[in-house]
Amino acid sequence: IFLSVDALPYDKPNVHTIPLKSKSITRRRLSRRAIGFMPVDQEQPDVAYFGQITFGTGTPQNFDIQFDTGSGDLFVFGRDCGSPACGDKPKYDSDLDTSFNPIEGKDFSVEYADGTEANGESATTTIVIAGISVEAQEFGVINEISDDFEHPYVGIMGMAFSEKSENEQTTPITNLINNNQLDNPQFSFMLGRDADQSPSELTIGGSNPDRYHADTLTFTHLVDDNGGTWEIPIDNCIVDGEELNLEGRTGIIDTGSTRIILPPDDADAFYSEILTAIDNGDGSYALPCEEQHEISLVFGGRTWNIDPRDFTVEIDQDDCIGSVVYADTGSDTEWHIGSAFLKNVYTIFDQGNRQVGFAELA
């Protein structure tokens, strides 16, 4: 849903940064429209990207939550979560939240592409993200999650479109747009690289022009049948100078994915251009660690290069794989474009105009 903000009186944007972990998120009075910046932490090395969100009013409850543009549901571990994965991690306590409202008769259940399942109850509360308050936000209070959910964060915030939600939630971003709280109906990511100790950042309500070269910004509109995801056409893929020329391919731009995931046949075509690649039979291809390969993706007529360090990935000492892997993506022509690519660009998710923009990092 897009509500135009151009017709509203202009208020000076409220720009502020929320440090992660070093101190709690604070609240402040906002103008009618706002843009919020927050640094983002990562599960090293470059596995997942997360930041702190405040849940509820009353006693502040701050939690590290993964930002996932590939899904549409918000959840956090609840105090009654008994799964081993919850362990002694921080948990949401509804008794401390004066704005907590359980949704009677509505359970919460979600399953992700990697097999992770989370179950619990649905409720609403006020959350604060990047300094902007979202009232009556629906979320899942998790009491059961897959045992192998071993991450430093305790929840996931879906940032696809609301129709992607498995629990018919309205996403926090959409709520902010519907409530006319943002300067622009957009959010943007810069994803850092652990090897460079480069920062990661989420901007809500626009983009941060200090982080990219504006003259390189290129937008690509979403495909019509996108299922609520950030799915755009892929013009081409280039492997060591050779164009694959696979027709009709699309890519879901997914900050919740570490790799670039292709259907098996496309992965076979991709690695046929790398003579030293060996299919491990588990969705990955082994590569000599000393090799460097020039991999590029073409969107909107512009070629975007992937740093060789983001392609040849060491998973154990002297044991490397390519960051392009294969799995059942749900379609023979659908790719999932994760952080292996997104670390190399500044990405703007434009919900109002249903498009994705890439730009060179500053």
UniProtKB/TrEMBL annotation:
<feature type="active site">
    <location>
        <position position="68"/>
    </location>
</feature>
<feature type="active site">
    <location>
        <position position="254"/>
    </location>
</feature>
<dbReference type="GO" id="GO:0004190">
    <property type="term" value="F:aspartic-type endopeptidase activity"/>
</dbReference>
<dbReference type="InterPro" id="IPR021109">
    <property type="entry name" value="Peptidase_aspartic_dom_sf"/>
</dbReference>
<keyword id="KW-0064">Aspartyl protease</keyword>
<protein>
    <submittedName>
        <fullName>10686_t:CDS:1</fullName>
    </submittedName>
</protein>
<feature type="disulfide bond">
    <location>
        <begin position="81"/>
        <end position="86"/>
    </location>
</feature>
<dbReference type="InterPro" id="IPR001461">
    <property type="entry name" value="Aspartic_peptidase_A1"/>
</dbReference>
<dbReference type="InterPro" id="IPR001969">
    <property type="entry name" value="Aspartic_peptidase_AS"/>
</dbReference>
<keyword id="KW-1015">Disulfide bond</keyword>
<feature type="domain" description="Peptidase A1">
    <location>
        <begin position="49"/>
        <end position="359"/>
    </location>
</feature>
<dbReference type="InterPro" id="IPR033121">
    <property type="entry name" value="PEPTIDASE_A1"/>
</dbReference>
<dbReference type="Pfam" id="PF00026">
    <property type="entry name" value="Asp"/>
</dbReference>
<keyword id="KW-0378">Hydrolase</keyword>
<keyword id="KW-0645">Protease</keyword>
<comment type="similarity">
    <text>Belongs to the peptidase A1 family.</text>
</comment>
<dbReference type="GO" id="GO:0006508">
    <property type="term" value="P:proteolysis"/>
</dbReference>
<feature type="disulfide bond">
    <location>
        <begin position="289"/>
        <end position="320"/>
    </location>
</feature>
<dbReference type="InterPro" id="IPR034164">
    <property type="entry name" value="Pepsin-like_dom"/>
</dbReference>
